[in-house]
Structures are given as C-alpha cells and as structure tokens.
Design brief:
333 residues; Rossmann fold; 3 domains; six-stranded parallel sheet; 11 helices; elongated
C-alpha cells in the first residue's frame, strides 16, 4: 500500500500525505485532486477504495459588490442553496465575479479548474449578454433571481405581480394618494415592481402620473431630503410602496426623527427578501419574496438535470403579502 501511495504521488505531483488522505476517504480536497488520484489508480490497475464516495461539486456564480454576502437577498439565497446541497451530499465552489471578469471563457476555465458538475448562476443584467454562449457548456446550468428570465432553466420570482399586490392592498384600505420609493430602474426587478403597482392604479381609474416617485441610483445615498419633502407636502401620499428593504429601513428612521408617524400619517408597504423588516421598532407590512425557497428550488432543478430527469424549463414563485404594523385603512387615520 505504501509503494502504491508513493507511485500515485509521483505521477500526480501531489504529496504522499495528500494521496494517503484521499485514499482513506478524508475530506477537504478539491474535486480535481480526487479525480486525478482516481484516474491514476485506474491506470495502475487498482480500484480506488475510498471509504466514502467523492461528493459532486457545483459552482455558484454570484455578482460581487461591497458587502454582498451581508445583503439580505444574497444571504437568503445562499442559505437555501447550501442547505439543499448539504442535504443532497454535494459540495459547492462559490465564484464571486465582477462584470469585468464575466466571460464565457472565464467560466469555462473555472469549470475545468474545480471539476464542476453543474452551475447555479445568480441573475444580474450582464448575464443576458452571455445566455446564448452559456447554453454551449457541457454541464447543466440553472439561473436563479428575482425577476422572470428567458434562460432555459431558471428559478425566479414574479416582481410585476409583487407591485400589483401592494397597490391592490392599498386600494382595498381606501388609499388613493400614492408614492413610490425605489432603487435604480436600470434594475429590471425594480422596474417591474413599479410597473405592476402603476398598472393597478390605472385600472382603478386613477392617473399613474400623479403617483409621487423618488428613485435612488445608489441605495447607500441619504434619504433625509426625500423624507423632508414628504413630511412638508401639503397633501402627502397616504400610502407609500418601497421596492427595496434597505431604503425602507432608512426612510422609517428619518420619519421617526421628524415625528412623522407610520402608519398614522402614512401607510407603508415594502418589498422584502427574508424577514429583514419584521424586527424593527414598527414591523413593516411587506410583499415578501420566498428567496430561500428559490435557492433550494435551484438546487433541485440542477440535480434533476444532472440525473437526466424530465423537468420544466422554469419555475416562477409568487410573492406573498405579510400584513404587519405599517398599514391602516384610510378611514381610521
């Protein structure tokens, strides 16, 4: 056995200690290293007698920006993905990427480097340019995100109906003067939530052009001026839809400083990705996206593809209305 380990080490360029650990089923090694040892063992006419099967490794491609792993959406998505992978006995290689590095060739190199069996890709706008190229990969690819996609195998939420649901609930409470606070409309998810909200306003006979709106290119910007504008309006909106939970938190803080009462002076509904607005001083009524379930669904779809099972090409998750403490019927105010 010792002679066998030494020969495998010499052929593979790995240390004898690493080869020994791999042959004894110890974890913590890259899929590429394990595959190399297994291949050399077969070439030598031996069966690699591992104590446990080598887990399949999949790649998780994520858009990298400042503190992205601390964001509610990313944290919820990764939790759903990693819990499901663990349950299935699989492992993952997280691949953070900036738009400048995003290319078909780079992804191809990552697949070869880590011996990936499949990819889960978090949607972001730069991927639309790559979709036709990614279909050429010889491993299954599943896209996951918070807006409907045209990719063949995808998991997404219905952002358009999220906006419609917010407007419909406000209307049922008697509100007729509305406001919208959003992140950049260059993000298709934000745009669809706004379009959904305005579509209901129009259907109910009101003018969407009269809806007060404020958009932020950067959600880290101050919202103090926006809060002051609302507080000082002669007829401010009685109901505001916020398409981003970070902006919602900041607006509530500013309102509190200005003695502007929510929901007494104005009702608020926010989009939410993972219960992040439930533990505030005033828990926020939300249109809640099932982000964690979407991550788990992406893994299930990828496994079905790996096992060559017949599956649908996409799955769309509806968001749900969760009524908390920031909304009141207009006639109670």
């Amino acid at each position: 056995m010792v002679a066998k380990i030494k020969e495998v080490a010499e052929r593979s360029g790995l240390s004898t200690a690493m080869v020994s650990r791999i042959l004894n089923g110890k974890g913590g090694h890259s899929t590429a290293a394990v595959k190399t040892v297994e291949r050399i063992m077969e070439e030598m006419g031996f069966n690699a007698n591992f104590n446990s099967p080598v887990p399949e490794c999949v790649g998780i491609v994520m858009f990298s920006y400042r503190d992205f792993l601390l964001q509610d959406y990313t944290a919820a998505l990764l939790t759903g993905i990693m819990e499901m992978l663990t349950n299935e006995g699989m492992i993952a290689q997280i691949i953070p990427m900036t738009p400048g590095r995003l290319s078909y060739q780079y992804i191809r190199e990552i697949i070869d480097r880590y011996g990936l069996k499949g990819l889960i890709i978090q949607e972001f706008s730069q991927l639309y340019e790559l979709s036709s190229h990614l279909s050429r990969l010889d491993i299954p690819v599943v896209f996951v995100g918070n807006t409907e996609m045209t990719f063949r195998h995808s998991i997404c939420s219905d952002s358009y109906h999220a906006g419609r649901d917010a407007a419909t609930y406000f209307w049922s409470l008697g509100h007729r003067r509305f406001g919208i606070i959003s992140a950049s409309e260059k993000d298709i998810c934000q745009r669809l939530r706004i379009e959904g909200f305005l579509s209901v306003v129009k259907e109910m006979g009101s003018d969407p052009a009269e809806v007060w709106r404020k958009g932020y290119v950067n959600i880290d910007d101050s919202v103090t001026a926006t809060a002051a504008e609302l507080v000082n309006m002669e007829q401010p909106p009685t109901a505001i839809f916020s398409t981003n939970s970070t902006l919602s938190r900041k607006m509530l803080m500013e309102f509190r400083k200005m003695k502007f009462r929510v929901p007494d002076d104005c009702s608020i509904i926010s989009f939410e990705e993972w219960g992040e607005l439930d533990n505030l001083e005033t828990p926020v009524t939300v249109i809640r996206q099932p982000t964690q379930k979407m991550g788990a669904a992406a893994v299930r779809m990828l496994i079905d593809l790996l096992r060559q099972r017949k599956i649908g090409e996409s799955e769309i998750f509806r968001c749900s209305l969760v009524v908390r403490d920031t909304t009141l019927p207009l006639n109670i105010k």
